[in-house]
UniProtKB/TrEMBL annotation:
GO molecular function, one term: ATP hydrolysis activity
InterPro entries: AAA+_ATPase, ABC_transporter-like_ATP-bd, ABC_transporter-like_CS, ABC_transporter_ATP-bind, P-loop_NTPase
SMART domains named in the record: AAA
Taxonomy of the source species: Bacteria, Bacillati, Actinomycetota, Actinomycetes, Streptosporangiales
Listed name of the protein: Taurine import ATP-binding protein TauB
SUPFAM superfamilies: P-loop containing nucleoside triphosphate hydrolases
UniProt keyword list: ATP-binding, Nucleotide-binding, Transport
Residue ranges constituting the ABC transporter domain according to the UniProt record: 2-235
Stretches of the chain forming a coiled coil according to its record: none
Length: 261
């Protein structure tokens, strides 16, 4: 479904080039929910921008359902951390959700159906007429998620979407993502700094090395499909997976001297 092959990204710079990503290869199956973790600065955002067609890799390819990604694909949506900056404050919630649908040239009635369904799915149908600044941070992020879902993406990319919300809201949003992922049969690639979040959410956790970056490990999450914030996180297997990934990232964060990439 989503194939990243031999991706390298070098940024030009005044003080020399920065090789942000050295050689990334991985694939996501249709309908898979995978999380991506790695040490700070390892190139997670760079990777997502290349997958979303917002930036070209220096070498390597991204393919979506067999088609090369050379610009933003029509069936992909991205949710960023900074919900405050991604919503237009002068547009009501519904108009924010429907805005990308105008690019798809959908008729007004279809836009309304899709925004109704998406706002209902994130529990904000009563706030369709509100402005984003009248909502809490967690609610604004749900608007951003509703906007992504209304677009009917086959693939949803999420770049640390819950980093700026409080712990309880974050837990609620994590459960919301798993619910929406199942309901809308999307493929989801979820980037996070939070190892517990990656294990709780994912069917798989891809661990990136420090820069210049490769995929250091690909960990299947063999927890039950029905997850619960208290009982799942309390399982022995959850602790084992968390420890394994934590150790990988700690090793990845060590100075690269003596390491072979
Ligand atoms: N536009 C740019 N020009 C030059 N170097 C860049 C540019 N953008 C990112 N980099 C460098 O590329 C590397 C990867 O950056 P990126 O933001 O993708 O990492 P990240 O894993 O998302 O970071 P974080 O964990 O802090 O969110 C870093 O060394 C960064 O300094």
């Amino acid at each position: 479904m989503l194939d990243v092959t031999g991706m390298q990204k070098i940024y030009p710079g005044q003080h020399g080039e920065v090789e942000a990503i050295r050689d990334l290869t991985f694939s996501l199956d249709d309908g898979e929910l995978a999380c991506l973790v790695g040490p700070s600065g390892c190139g997670k955002t760079t990777l997502l921008k290349c997958i979303a067609g917002l930036m070209r890799p220096t070498s390597g390819t991204v393919e979506l359902a067999g088609n090369a990604v050379t610009g933003p694909p029509p069936d992909m949506a991205v949710v960023f951390q900074e919900y405050g900056r991604s919503l237009f404050p002068w547009l009501r919630v519904r108009d924010n959700v429907e805005l990308p649908l105008k690019e798809k040239r959908l008729a007004k009635q279809r836009r309304r159906e899709l925004s109704d369904e998406a706002l209902e799915a994130v529990g904000l149908h009563k706030f369709a007429g509100a402005y984003p600044w009248q909502l809490s941070g967690g609610m604004q992020q749900r608007v951003a998620i509703a906007r992504a879902i209304a677009y009917e993406p086959r693939v949803m990319l999420m770049d640390e979407p819950f980093a700026a919300v409080d712990a309880q809201t974050r837990a609620d949003l994590e459960d919301l993502i798993r619910t929406l992922w199942k309901r809308f049969n999307m493929t989801v690639l979820f980037v996070t700094h939070d190892i517990d979040e990656a294990v709780y959410l994912g069917q798989r956790v891809l661990v990136m090395s420090s820069s210049p970056t490769i995929i250091q490990d690909d960990v299947p999450v063999d927890l039950a499909d029905e997850r619960d914030q208290i009982s799942t996180r309390g399982e022995h297997r959850f602790a084992e997976l968390r420890s394994r990934i934590y150790a990988e990232i700690r090793n990845a964060s060590q100075p690269a001297a003596g390491k072979t990439a």
